[in-house]
From TrEMBL:
Keyword terms, alphabetized: Methyltransferase, Transferase
Annotated family: Belongs to the N(4)/N(6)-methyltransferase family.
EC number(s) stated in the UniProt entry for this protein: 2.1.1.-
Listed GO biological process terms: methylation
Domain named DNA methylase N-4/N-6: residues: 34-315
Taxonomic lineage: Bacteria, Pseudomonadati, Pseudomonadota, Alphaproteobacteria, Rhodospirillales
Name under which the protein is recorded: Methyltransferase
Catalysed reactions listed for this entry: a 2'-deoxyadenosine in DNA + S-adenosyl-L-methionine = an N(6)-methyl-2'-deoxyadenosine in DNA + S-adenosyl-L-homocysteine + H(+)
Pfam families in the record: N6_N4_Mtase
A single MF term (Gene Ontology): site-specific DNA-methyltransferase (adenine-specific) activity
InterPro entries from the UniProt entry: DNA_methylase_N4/N6, RM_Methyltransferase, SAM-dependent_MTases_sf
Length: 339
């Protein structure tokens, strides 16, 4: 296997991130080495993060994006432990009048395109979680014709509902001969109440849901809430509650796309809680500023990530370092309290 081109790398006790192209890096990862992948891919050409030809957001059409994304998904299938999952945070995309060949406007089913690629590369479709978004905030941010009060009054045939996001989840089934690699994810009754399971099983997750994973039982174990307040309130996508995302501090870098769209921390934590055991490996190929890593570390998981953009990579190093310190501080607190 060829060496990936790694521009920089940083490591902590339970994490490693690489300033590298996710595809070439994943090609060098060992088989069945990841227990859960959770990440936001670039939403096709919605934002271009850098001028790099390797930047998957640097594409003209959705099909071009999927052509590149497919190479990653192929590796994700190989590196995922048999019987485990890959959860991607996506949304459908809007196109406007005159931006299409026939001058029409509507939605592009980007999430379905992602599913197509995952299925073609061997995964099965496991489930779709809808992440609720407030249409009033979307209206304030983007002013879409379909969400205007005057459209509702003038000709409601143009009205649409607000755009949710999704966590699309795909499973890599064990093939014959791989049974020995399968490892169940366990939630012992003594540790996880039925109500928590019923909550996690809901098909709609909210970014303003305050039930941070693992806060039930002994409150001192709520390491997630320590990391939650890691930095000043995040800005995120404009419609996120202040404490739900890491703060994007790239304003001083003119080359960095400011609309990073960090992955909501509580959504990521719910996925990690549901689909991994403590100590397992979480992978994000598009690490950005490190949200998935912070969520993983705060829940006692290990994290590996790749990020192409040097500014985001630098921020992710900072956040992961900070998160592991806070987790260590939490463990020390536990130890002292137990004495
Ligand atoms: C939607 S953002 C991810 C945000 C991240 N989930 C967070 O919360 O910070 C997509 C990221 O993918 C990165 N990216 C794009 N192409 C890449 C590639 N080929 N390899 C690694 N990272 C890439 C972009 O620089 C961007 O930071």
């Amino acid at each position: 296997m060829r060496d990936p081109l790694v521009l920089d790398q940083a490591h902590g006790a339970d994490w490693s991130i690489y300033n590298a192209d996710c595809v070439t890096f994943a090609q060098a990862m060992p088989d069945a080495s990841v227990d859960l992948s959770v990440f936001s891919p670039p939403f096709s050409n919605l934002y271009v993060y850098s001028e790099s030809a390797a930047d998957h957001g640097n594409c003209v059409t959705d099909e071009e994006f999927f052509d590149h994304y497919r190479f990653l998904v192929r590796e994700l299938y190989r590196v995922t432990r048999p019987g485990r999952l890959c959860a991607i945070h996506v949304k459908d995309l809007v196109y406007y009048q005159n931006s299409s060949a026939d001058g029409s406007a509507g939605l592009r089913a980007f999430s379905d395109g992602c599913t197509r690629v995952h299925l073609e590369e061997g995964f099965t479709f496991h489930c779709r979680i809808t992440i609720h978004r407030d249409p009033v905030l979307e209206r304030a941010k983007a002013n879409p014709h379909g969400l205007l009060w005057k459209t509702f009054q003038g000709d409601a045939s143009f009205c649409r509902v607000g755009m949710p996001e999704y966590l699309m989840v795909y499973r890599r089934w064990a093939r014959p001969g791989e049974k020995a690699l399968v490892k169940p994810v366990l939630h012992p009754k003594a540790e996880v109440p039925l109500e928590r399971w019923q909550d996690l099983a809901g098909p709609v997750w909210r970014t303003d849901d305050a039930s941070v994973a693992l806060t039930y039982g002994d409150p001192r174990r709520a390491v997630g809430s320590l990391v939650w307040n890691l930095q000043d309130p995040g800005r995120g996508d404009g419609d996120l509650p202040a404490t739900d995302v890491l703060n994007v501090e790239v304003a001083r870098d003119p080359d960095a796309e400011r609309h990073l769209c960090p992955m909501p921390l509580n959504i990521t934590k719910r996925a990690i809680e549901l689909w991994t055991n403590p100590g397992e490996v979480v992978f994000s190929p598009y690490t950005g500023i490190g949200s998935e890593g912070v969520a993983a570390l705060s829940m006692g998981r290990k994290f590996i990530g790749t990020e192409l953009h040097p500014t985001y990579y630098g921020q992710a190093c900072h956040f992961l370092d900070e998160a592991s310190r806070q987790v260590a501080y939490g463990s020390l607190f536990d130890l002292l309290a137990a004495e």
